[in-house]
Amino acid sequence: MEKVFVSPSRYVQGKDVFKKADQYVKKLGDLALVVADETVWKAAAEAFSAQLKKGGIEVVKEVFQGECSINEINRLTESGKAKKVNVVIGLGGGKTLDTVKAVADHLDTPVVCAPTVASADAPTAGLSVIYTDDGAFESYLFYDKNPELVIVDTRIIAESPHRMLVSGISDALATWIEARAVAEGHNNTMSGKQPTLAGKAIAETCEKVLFDYALPAIEANQKKIVTPALEAIVEANTLLSGLGFEDGGLGAAHAIHNGFTALTGDIHHLTHGEKVAYGALTQLVLENKPFDELERYIGFYLKLGLPTSLKEIHLEKATDEELYKVGEKATAPGETIHQMPFAITADDVVQAIKGVDAYVKDYKSRHGWSVESKKELLAMD
Ligand SMILES: [Zn+2]
Hints:
zinc, ADH_Fe_CS, EC 1.1.1.6
């Protein structure tokens, strides 16, 4: 039985660390391909690149087109090859970072992930999630190594949209329940090996930090201030969740998220984390854990304002046929749902998706829950 633990070589987090970017990057290369989307170029990547230039690092600018697809990866790889870059840097959200990891793999250079939102697990992971040009989940791409550097400026995160931080919290909330399920079944992590005690401990700590600090961190984000609670949640969303999923393993929650991408329509407007929220609740229903735990999670998702009903994921009018598409994609061969401790069919997934909606309705009526009560707990913007 082989255990494996992987991680980025260096993780740096703090207020204004982007102002020291050159010091960290120059150890890795002196001709950088810097990739960010149009918005992120204006908000952060221009200043980041200026800092690199101050430190004597040349910059090749590229604008990310929005999807982590094979076409986009090939386009950026060609650009990097033509300019002979020796380090690849991505600034932005999960899709940008997943793309630069693939580009660096093709170019055989170090890669730097500089997330400007704390919304997903991409920055630390040694893998990318590949989508079609239309945004449907296609496959996971695995690399020989994790990023050489992850650099997170919490002042930039504090100014990022509230919805992205909450999405990251949701993505991170799935980490422990998925890692726990993988461990219970003696199944494998993302590297195809057994989880280490370290991987499990990180995933479990991730959950604790989220329940302790998510609400004050959201408040800080809304006021655009950096507090210790915000720092804790940025670390939970990025480092603990990133290592927790890669070294602890994924289960049903992310497979069901991938299942949702089989559908067209408004569900596409949900973020990764919002779809994962419903996937995580669906996994909890499938696991049939003691009712207290399901209630604890439902209550927390409601306070966070995450989607917990079919209506909120735009599936209230979905036909059984459509839901079976989700179930079939979620249980496709190779999906992480097969790392769960028990077998799950497409039909089981469909029943549990409907189960979440029913349980949440019941929870709301027993707890007198309304939109107003949510607003009292958490001033939404
Ligand atoms: Zn995720």
